[in-house]
Write a structure and sequence with these properties.
Blueprint lengths: L12 H13 L8 H9 L1 H21 L6 H18 L7
Helix pairs in contact: 1-3, 2-3
Bound molecules: zinc ion.
Length: 95
């Protein structure tokens, strides 16, 4: 395996796609690796795939980061649950 930086070795689709999970795991889905961008330019298959993945990642992000906090009613339920629970147990040593 050579480690020359001068001219990027063209990737195969399989090699390219192997790196995709890492790219998206890194967060943005933005591709900075010249080898990968080079492959994207020349390969419609993979550029379509990346577009799909970026779209999906985007949707997932919106699901994971909702604009308003969902926790209000959830917390209420939890607190009610806790209150119901502790009301079953007599409070210890209350003067
Ligand atoms: Zn490809």
């Amino acid at each position: 395996m050579t480690l020359k930086n001068s001219s990027p070795i063209p990737l195969s689709c399989a090699e390219f796609q192997e790196q995709l999970p890492d790219l998206f795991a890194a967060g943005s889905g933005a591709i900075h690796d010249p080898q990968l961008t080079e492959h994207l330019k020349t390969c419609e298959n993979c550029s379509a795939l990346v577009r799909d993945l970026q779209y999906i990642a985007d949707q997932a992000k919106q699901l994971l980061q909702p604009t308003h906090e969902p926790s209000d009613s959830v917390w209420k339920k939890i607190q009610e649950g806790l209150a119901a629970d502790s009301s079953l147990v007599p409070e210890p040593s209350k003067n």
